[in-house]
Backbone:
């Protein structure tokens, strides 16, 4: 979807850009040329992209099914309800970053390249999101004339760091331990051996 920014000479209130009017919004940054702030009010949802959410699900699926050998993306797509083409795009940076290895051949597929306790959700999200910042001014402080003394920018930076720290503290092993039931390669629920 191509977004066209409104005319910057119109009053600030008429320059709001809504990506999804039904969703709750957060103003990322606001500039008013007289105050030397930003020129556009841009409102978007504060949420992770499907790319990183699906990437975590893909990696968790590979971890949960590691004992079955290489896992085919087609099987992951079926189990997770994610399009195969999207998974094919997501797995490329995961392979380049050495989180996943591919095995060729009739019994080929994908495997984690490290034990699940050595891969964090934060690593996956940071790789697939290209960084996790709540506001644009954190990543591009030069775009805002207030960045050197803006108290709220410091708040958003601290909140971004706290989110990153929390995600970085959660390993795939921890997610595996939280998983209530195992699912076999056909998508059927496996009962725990102890029950």
Residues:
């Amino acid at each position: 979807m191509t977004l066209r920014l409104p005319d910057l000479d119109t009053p600030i209130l008429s320059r709001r850009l809504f990506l999804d009017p039904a969703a709750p919004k957060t103003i990322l940054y606001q500039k008013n040329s007289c105050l030397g702030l930003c020129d556009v009010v841009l409102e978007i949802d504060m949420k992770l992209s499907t790319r990183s959410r699906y990437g975590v699900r893909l990696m968790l699926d590979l971890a949960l099914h590691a004992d079955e050998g290489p896992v085919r993306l087609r099987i992951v797509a079926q189990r997770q309800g994610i399009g195969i083409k999207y998974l094919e795009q997501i797995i490329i940076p995961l392979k380049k970053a050495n989180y996943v290895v591919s095995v060729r051949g009739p019994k080929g597929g994908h495997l984690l390249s490290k034990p699940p306790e050595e891969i964090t959700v934060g690593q996956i999200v940071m790789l697939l999101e290209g960084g996790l910042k709540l506001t644009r001014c954190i990543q591009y402080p030069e775009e805002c004339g207030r960045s050197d003394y803006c108290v709220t920018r410091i708040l958003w930076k601290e909140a971004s760091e706290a989110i990153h720290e929390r995600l970085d503290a959660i390993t795939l092993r921890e997610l595996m331990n939280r998983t209530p039931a195992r699912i076999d390669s056909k998508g059927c629920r496996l009962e725990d051996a102890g029950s």
In short: The two ends are 50 Å apart (CA to CA). The chain is about 40% helix and 10% strand.
